[in-house]
From TrEMBL:
This is Response regulator receiver modulated metal dependent phosphohydrolase. It comes from Gallionella capsiferriformans (strain ES-2) (Gallionella ferruginea capsiferriformans (strain ES-2)). It comes from the Bacteria. The modification 4-aspartylphosphate is found at residue 59. Keywords: Hydrolase, Phosphoprotein. It holds the Pfam family HD_5. Residues 10-126 form the Response regulatory domain. Residues 153-364 form the HD-GYP domain. GO terms for molecular function: phosphoric diester hydrolase activity. PROSITE patterns: HD_GYP, RESPONSE_REGULATORY. One of its GO terms (biological process) is phosphorelay signal transduction system. Coiled coil: none annotated.
Amino acid sequence: MSIANKTIETVLVIDDSPEILLIINELLKKDYRIKAANSGEKGLRLAREEPIPDLILLDIMMPGINGHEVCRTLKADRSTRDIPVIFLTAMHNECDEEQGLKLGAADYIGKPISGPILRARVKTHLAMKQSADYIRDKNVFLIGEVSKRARELEFIQDVTILALASVAETRDNETGNHLRRTQHYVRLLAEHLQRHPRFSLSLTRTNIELIYKSAPLHDIGKVGIPDSILLKPGRLTADEFTVMKTHAALGREAIEHAEQQMGRSAPFLTFAKEIAGSHQEKWDGSGYPEGLAGEQIPASARLMAVADVYDALVSERPYKKPMSHEAACEIITKGSGSHFDPNVVDAFLSLNLEFKNTAEHFKDNFNENALSQPLGHTT
């Protein structure tokens, strides 16, 4: 019940004495709705029935289930645990009061009952409950709003990445299924390696999700390669290949430029920059654009290197037939320690059947006329 929408509060009185029930009803009925129970069992039942009480006055010494047991049960039930309980007792032993407070009682009122004290205590605890309910409702609302905003931000991130990836896709011969396959390959590798000592810090659950989402941006830099080179049907010259190799640095720079335009860095694009800029680096340092070697190469890029090469080998293109899964595995195995991180290759070999199934599930379908279309280049 919120402060802004105040209604008549309900007080549940649980006491085996008809006289006490009558006295309390007379004292409080003018201001509150009264529900009465002459046993602990009936009191527990009424506590869960509409209207749910806003406060419970509870006798301790009752036959059957005593007040302490009733209070313990109420506080263990999610639907009644937030209802304040005030014990009614003729006992004035400090230990008894301590026990009741430990069970979650809000207060004690001694018998014989004083009308002014009863009304004052009831009013005070109901006001405190209203405030607590108001704060709890606000917290629930705020948590919902934060969750909503987080989902909106995640959606914006996803749209940003997919929009950028789609731009690259329109310039190259790579297909949307290529992007999906490499995403799934990278996730397979990352989840397999996340408990490996060399990868446990970088491959957290959150990072794996971001790497998965960023994977489609690995060739975003190809938007900066001239069509005369990118779509050339024949073998590239040495000079043309030099230009083609700039796509990795161009990709990273394009993402950095977008961040500069926003005026700040975007954490969700960190892995996109790593993957775009370093997926063509090689473990032995012979790759490009910077000649990074070993663990100088970001983990996300090392995963993408295996994923991208495997997909290039086993995928059909308008200008080539796919290589067999077994042949692709052999090539990647030979590249362990030279082209690829050996631990990533080990993970790939452990997962090779999952890779094969993923490739088949997201298989490209080229029509017969596609064989006459302009050719592009994978690097």
